[in-house]
Amino acid sequence: MEKLETVEIVKEKTEKREIRSFGEFWRFFLSELKPKGNPWTPFNLFSGLIMLLGFIFIIYRFVTGLSPTTNLGQEYPWGIWKGAVVNSGVAFAGGGYTLAFIVYILGMERYRPMLRETVLFAFLAYVFYAGALTIELGRWHLFYNPFIGNKYGVSSVLFIVAWHFMLYMVTLALEFSPAAAEWVGFKRARKVLGAAALGAVVFGVMLSIHHQAGLGAMFTMCKGKLHPLWYSEFMPVLYFISSIYAGPSVMIIVSSITQKLYAHRVDEEYRNAHPGIVLGLAKMCAATIFAYLFLQLILVHHEHDLYLITTPMGFWWLVEVGALAFVPMLLFIHGVQQKNLATINLAAVLALAGVLLNRLNNVFIAYNWYLPLSLKYYPTWQEVIILLTIIFIDVWVFRWIINRMHVLSKPPEWARMEKH
Amino acid sequence: MNRRTFLKVMGSAVAGATCGSLIRPAASGAQGVFDANEFFGILIDTTRCIGCRLCEKACAEVNYLPNPDISEKANQAVFKTKRDTSVIEYTVTNLYETEKGKVFVPWRCMHCNQPACHSACIVYALEKRETGHVTWDKRCIGCRLCMMSCPFQIPKHTFQEPAAVIQKCNLCYGRFLQGIVPGCVEACPTEALMFGTRRKLLEEGKRRIAQNPGRYINHIYGEFEIGGTSTMYLSAVPFDQIGLRTDLGLKHYPEYSMVYLSAIPFIAGLTPIAMLGIAHVIRMAKKDAKEEHHDHHEEKEKH
Predict the structure, then answer these.
(1) Boundaries of domain holding A131
(2) CB 3.0-4.6 Å disulfide test: which of A138, A243, B141, B280 passes with B164?
């Protein structure tokens, strides 16, 4: 019996050819660059056009400064890029640490089929969304200063966030690297990288708590400028909790889409496990939104802001917290009870809209809320194009990877055998 | 211990405690404030300001900014609107209609004792010098968190430049190092602006309040506001009538982000241990359950 197994392993090992030189890798990479299937789909044409336009605007912005392409100004130094791409995008990538925590720390193996997809999504989100920070830096040519130590601003929340972004990107890359190693066929590397997983997850969760909360902590010094209903000294906690449900909500939607569009890449195990995983995540989202709402209510009560509810900003706050947090919670509960995946998907979309609106409120809508309408910030269409460009690059790269690596399916036989 | 040593020790302890609460080097990065150095600042007496805008002209000259038109005719138009400082005006004078008539108020960086901008800066490009000046350095990366954080909206960013800069009053730090008072103070014909150490300015402000009963309200804006500022105001009318924010509180701003910052070491230290512990316990529990299951099975087979 034992002999037979070893023979099988040897057979598996010889099936995937190992790449030994850089030239070989390069040829392999080039051959993989070619699109699979017809590239002239309507979506590709549309997104390609937007991206082309976006690249031109990005270059134009780098050459001419921020003001020709954006509406940023002295009253609203941060706009839709910070609000939608960085603050929301990072919360949406929160699945990277929640799911890793569930699988690796809590040992809930039934969630494992979704793990690689989530880690990949989170990794790309960090690379492109946090990378988009560079576009909106006023002195982007010096972006490396906080990293090389041209003075470390250790009391700056953004300093903490920037370093954690960088470290977490490396950690996520490490978490995903086994898949890349399998794709290329680096067998020995695959073994080493697979063994580092638990350490990477523990480190990653710790980093995530820090920087998810840190994004909220950036606003703690906006006292007097951010509307009292949004401002609180506990904003870091609110940001952290909302990322716990934003991450899985994104993954509910993304995985539902990939299950349909990339059915040929999904293996039997994941396909069967998917409804159960979504139900489990929906339960978790409902519980977390409840905690979030509870904290919001306590904060509003303790800071005596309840009288502001009847003002226009109060109604706007109710839209965010009521319609886009409380309602999704009810929908999540309903969907779990009825085992209805469509309801859960709808709930996830609403919950994400709530998180997005919350971040936009903090960055510019409820920020300097007392200013007259004429001074208010709204994004220019160029800003929106650049925003879409970043998202489309993310989608394209995501698509390219799941079409080539073992993301939606189990690792190949040889990799699984070696693990034990 | 004789009386003298006792007094010495107690005195230095009290001084240390009060100075420590005034400025913590860790929080602001300012070093050497415990030496003989004191923060310098400007006391602005709004009852003396006549709205001539000579300070604006001097400021522009000193900082190589576009020269403002301060003729009588131009001033009439200028005072119709409330102006904010900008990338080409580090100080502006505004006119406010108050219960005691027209009041001119010069406005510029407050040079907080513990500035929010400095504490928010990712590379400490905005620095609180040990002399009290808040200055900007070109190592800045342009993240603009200082603009988000400053309660007075003072840092201004040149959005139209590819390599943008932050523009703000630096209390004429360069002139200070040469031993000259700031341009605006030098130009002021009515001594509405006064330069000196913060301690001396507070003494002078209190003296004026005490010696001119009814002329001033009994408060110096900036003595305690957000932990104290180096630009301070005297006024005949409540400060909210002359455009100064009175809702900012007495706590210095870096303290608001300290709540988060001080939690970081605890999270960094405790969560990995807790997580590894949880993972271990769960793995053990699973193993036990498996073994039990196995035993149970074996027993069944025996029967």
Answers:
(1) 38-275+374-419
(2) A138
Q: Is the per-residue pLDDT at A10 higher than 70?
A: no
Angle between helix A381-402 and A42-64 (nearest 10) = 130
Q: Do A72 and B119 touch (CB under 8 A)?
A: no
For a pLDDT cut of 70, what percent of chain A falls above it?
94
Of A65, A73, A159, the CB nearest to B122: A159
Q: Does residue A100 contact residue A412 with C-beta atoms inside 8 Å? A: no
pLDDT at residue A305, as a whole number: 85
Report the percent of chain B where pLDDT is more than 70. 86
Per-residue DSSP letter, A226: B
The verdict on residue A130 lying in a domain is yes
Asked whether the beta carbons of A238 and A292 are under 8 A apart, the reply is yes
Task: Kindly report the nearest CA distance between residue B271 and chain A, in angstroms.
Answer: 6
pLDDT in tens, A60-95: 999 999 998 999 999 999 999 999 989 999 999 999
**Number of domains chain A is built from:** 1
Classify residue A80: in a domain, yes or no: yes
Which residues in B126-151 are b (16+ Cβ under 10 Å) and which e? bbbbbbbbbbbeebbbbbbbbbbbbb
Q: Taking the CB of residue A174, how many other CB atoms lie within 10 A of it?
A: 19
In DSSP terms, which residues pair with B43 in a beta bridge?
B194, B232
Average pLDDT over residues A351-359: 97
Q: How confident is the model at residue A16 (pLDDT cuts 50, 70, 90)?
A: low
Is B157's CB within 8 Å of A138's CB? yes
Using 50, 70 and 90 to split pLDDT, how confident is the model at A304? confident
- A214 contact residues in B (CB cutoff 8 A): 260
- CATH code for the domain in which residue A150 is found: 1.20.1630
* Chain A nearest-CA residue for B280: A105
pLDDT (mean) for A339-363: 96
Q: What is the pLDDT of residue A186?
A: 81
The per-residue pLDDT for range B176-224, each reduced to its tens digit, is 999 999 999 999 999 999 999 999 999 999 999 999 989 999 999 999 9
**Please, what's the b/e burial string for A200-239 (b: 16 or more CB within 10 A of its CB; e: otherwise)?**
bbbbbbbbbbbbbbbbbbbbbbbbbbbbbbbbbbbbbbbb
Tell me which chain A residues have a C-beta less than 8 angstroms from the C-beta of B257.
155, 157, 217, 220-221
Residue B263: closest C-alpha in chain A: A210
Nearest to B96 by CA among B247, B248, B217, B235: B235
The Cα diameter of chain A in Å comes to 80
Chain A residues with CB-CB distance to B125 below 8 A: 151
Answer whether B156's CB lies under 8 Å from B168's CB.
yes
Average pLDDT over residues A169-185: 90
Q: Pick from A67, A143, A217: which is nearest to B260 by CB?
A: A217
Which DSSP state fits A82?
I
What residues form DSSP beta bridges with B42? B195, B231
| Chain B residue closest in CA terms to A232 | B256
Q: What is the mean pLDDT of chain A?
A: 90
